[in-house]
Amino acid sequence: MCSSSWKTMAVALLLIELWFTIESSLAHPDKIVKLPGQPPRLSFQQFSGYVTVDYKKHTALFYYFVEAETDPASKPLVLWLNGGPGCSSLGVGAFSENGPFRPNGEFLVKNDYSWNREANMLYLETPIGVGFSYSTNTSSYEAVDDEITARDNLVFLQNWYNKFPNYRHRDLYITGESYAGHYIPQLAKLMVEFNKKQNLFNLKGIALGNPVLEFATDFNSRAEYFWSHGLISDSTYNMFTSVCNYSRYVSEYYRDSVSPSCSKVMSQVSRETSKFVDKYDVTLDVCISSVLSQSMAINPQQVSERVDVCVEDKIVNYLNRKDVQKALHARLVGVRRWTVCSNILDYQLLNLEMPTISIVGSLIKSGIPVLVYSGDQDSVIPLTGSRSLVSRLAKELELETTVPYRVWFEGKQVGGWTQVYGNILSFATIRGASHEAPFSQPERSLMLFKSFLEGKPLPEVF
């Protein structure tokens, strides 16, 4: 073949490639071409943008979606929600915990234990007013509660499927942590109800990390955790359990009626535990990367503190870069800067007192598997409260133990402990993990996630 023919073919191939690129862009307007500073030669696609959930109020939720590293067509879809309430699944979940990258200066560093090794990961900034999610009607930020959030999240998923119809009816899992112990069960309940009319959501399971499930049990387990880990004295422990427990203090705090007795107890607890110990990971120094500030709302005595500024600053700086926002198809509406946790959202924090463990029970009755897992170094929502709630629920549902309480392994080390009831309700700890377990123990968290998706017990041997 002559050289001119080769040149003609080369030009034709370039034109075909350009056509496919343009067609792909048109088919997926939310596709991310490249994030500033990302590693070269990625094996997966990324998307981000907005899904409108209320056209009258011009309300839109922001999402970040990364397809699985390999064979995304065969992998399930996993929705990840962070808590707060009011903290970002983009900044906390995606960019510090289990997403593909973590900001480090001008660059993004590859996370070798990203959960998109096992699934297509969808991160949602919810409720309205969190991160890049916005409404042009500022009244939308007022009196937001669990019911509104669950409804918006359901509408988001319905409309997101219109953007990505190939994921409609794909196996779907919902995971998250902290106040997502409210978000996730309530969203899953709406899905189950919706499916009775129109079978859209192929929900296969939910996983809740260090979750708020039952206000009093979760919060009051903190006293024993503090005491058993040497953070408070015997006398303070006695006061913390008899004079004023933590759930009472939080209830009084959010009603602007803190009693003198509770104020005295909490002052003593704060003095002994010290502001120099990270309550979200009691084994780490305060500036070593472990957690972000997503749970500040449920720790009112610490509201003025900044947790883990070393990591948070990197994320805040990265997501406030104009070139990054452009690449993400994101915009700031009504705020000057992107923040980890919203400072414009007025969330009804007394929703904390509404238990969601009963909703978890109803989901199990509907045949949806549930995993509750705990980073065992977290004193905010300690493992002891979560474990007792799961055990109590198993008894109420008359579920027999199918995997007795035992250790599980990852990388020839003990990864944590686990127990399974009726092959549908599971509890697990992640050894050495913080409130944000995938950040502090990425390898062990990935193993737990993989086992959860496969519906298999955690490894009994290494």
TrEMBL record:
<dbReference type="Pfam" id="PF00450">
    <property type="entry name" value="Peptidase_S10"/>
</dbReference>
<comment type="function">
    <text>Probable carboxypeptidase.</text>
</comment>
<feature type="signal peptide">
    <location>
        <begin position="1"/>
        <end position="27"/>
    </location>
</feature>
<dbReference type="InterPro" id="IPR033124">
    <property type="entry name" value="Ser_caboxypep_his_AS"/>
</dbReference>
<dbReference type="InterPro" id="IPR018202">
    <property type="entry name" value="Ser_caboxypep_ser_AS"/>
</dbReference>
<keyword id="KW-0378">Hydrolase</keyword>
<keyword id="KW-0645">Protease</keyword>
<keyword id="KW-0325">Glycoprotein</keyword>
<dbReference type="GO" id="GO:0005576">
    <property type="term" value="C:extracellular region"/>
</dbReference>
<keyword id="KW-1015">Disulfide bond</keyword>
<keyword id="KW-0121">Carboxypeptidase</keyword>
<comment type="similarity">
    <text>Belongs to the peptidase S10 family.</text>
</comment>
<dbReference type="GO" id="GO:0004185">
    <property type="term" value="F:serine-type carboxypeptidase activity"/>
</dbReference>
<dbReference type="GO" id="GO:0005773">
    <property type="term" value="C:vacuole"/>
</dbReference>
<dbReference type="GO" id="GO:0006508">
    <property type="term" value="P:proteolysis"/>
</dbReference>
<protein>
    <recommendedName>
        <fullName>Carboxypeptidase</fullName>
        <ecNumber>3.4.16.-</ecNumber>
    </recommendedName>
</protein>
<keyword id="KW-0964">Secreted</keyword>
<keyword id="KW-0732">Signal</keyword>
<dbReference type="InterPro" id="IPR029058">
    <property type="entry name" value="AB_hydrolase_fold"/>
</dbReference>
<dbReference type="InterPro" id="IPR001563">
    <property type="entry name" value="Peptidase_S10"/>
</dbReference>
